[in-house]
Design a protein that fits this description.
single chain, about 120 residues, alpha/beta, five-stranded mixed beta sheet, about 25% strand
Length: about 120
């Protein structure tokens, strides 16, 4: 998963015509570490339909605040600079919940393209 290193890089990433899922995390978050083992497989499974990038919330606190990201890990999907859907809560997330969110992201993206 590509790590975002600047606000400009974030802005460029979310402008993609392909859905982009941004994972907000921190290095000290136990729930973030719990999903690490399976995230490469999840990312590979969805590579054809969406991009995934990571943002360390502690390195971009203003961005996290602007997007109302308080719980981590949190996921927000964007396309062409607009937010599509989010999975933001203070609770830990399972592989199944993350995959369901990614499926929903694809559905929302396709519905918007047809509209």
């Amino acid at each position: 998963m590509k790590e975002i290193t600047s606000q400009a890089e974030f802005e460029q990433a979310i402008r993609s015509t392909k859905p982009v899922v941004v994972k907000f995390y921190t290095t000290w978050c136990p729930d973030c570490h719990r999903i690490e083992p399976f995230m490469p497989e999840v990312e590979a499974a969805y590579r054809e339909k969406l991009e995934m990038v990571a943002v360390d919330r502690d390195k971009f606190p203003e961005l996290a605040q602007q997007l109302d990201v308080f719980g981590i890990p949190s996921f927000i999907a964007f396309q062409e600079g607009r937010e599509l859907i989010r999975f933001v809560s203070k609770l830990g997330k399972s592989r199944e919940e993350i995959e369901h969110f990614l499926e929903r992201t694809i559905q929302v993206s396709e519905a918007l393209r047809q509209a």
